[in-house]
């Protein structure tokens, strides 16, 4: 507890060391140092002591960082998170460090100002999406929280712009499946469109994850900091860890495959998918958009959002609580049957069209 003393006036007074100021003395050609104290005065002794103690605690928490440059601090932050965050996240952080910090990287943390950050953000925003700028600034913000806890920088980030993405239709998916029939890519598309499963989850799937008509999603492939695909023995998020009931025709397509269901890497899946889209004459959309297709179809069938999120592994913490603590098994079974019936009907239509030489056209 800081020491207080009573002044002749009867009030109580306490001083707490704040910091040391350095000024250059041209005559001595050296730095002069002056200790600076924060003063607290009042007629209530306990109140003065409490305010002084609070300042002392906050001063330690908000201690100015050592002389370290922004780029060095970011590297230290990345090193501290390596092995804690996913390899893909670390790889993204390293990319930001090496490509986007030229304007602020050499500034010492203790000298960094809101104006420095705002000018950097303004330059960064030219030719880049708001999401990219926000992701880059997110790393800087996390670094500042680690090395300068309690610090406050006032900056404005670009507003997010909603992307207009093409969501494939039933006819698009049927046409695509006809084009890739009998290939490994067909299996990947079935799992993505009727799961829905992510690319990395599909490539990590093994025969051990298939039980009856269920697929267990419990791992995934991600790119590490060296840009190599590595198996992560946990899915993207907690909510991604799930069991999906698949239609019979999807299970029939993968039954009998031993080991990894898909031998290709996620990158190879995307390359093959893009070629298939091009040669089938379909409007351009991404492999990941097959997940959007599945969600949109389920939504159109009036499947409640909580079941769609549980099936696809989409969730915030609040959504997760709604799903995993509120799901009723009878209701889940009813909606699963509804989902299976729709996708099985789509499959039957496709088989009929293939047998009768009917092609999907726009």
Automatic annotation (TrEMBL):
Pfam family, one: Phage_integrase
Tyr recombinase domain span: 162-341
GO molecular function: DNA binding
GO biological process, one term: DNA recombination
Core-binding (CB) domain ranges (all copies): 68-148
PROSITE patterns noted in UniProt: CB, TYR_RECOMBINASE
Keyword Secreted: no
Gene3D superfamilies the record matches: 1.10.150.130, Intergrase catalytic core
Keyword DNA-binding belongs to the record: yes
InterPro entries with a match to the protein in the record: CB, DNA_brk_join_enz, Integrase-like_cat_sf, Integrase_catalytic, Integrase_recombinase_N, Integrase_SAM-like_N, Tyrosine_recombinase_XerCD
Keywords: DNA integration, DNA recombination, DNA-binding
Annotated family: Belongs to the 'phage' integrase family.
Role description: Site-specific tyrosine recombinase, which acts by catalyzing the cutting and rejoining of the recombining DNA molecules.
Protein's recorded name: Site-specific integrase
Lineage, top ranks: Bacteria, Bacillati, Bacillota, Clostridia, Lachnospirales
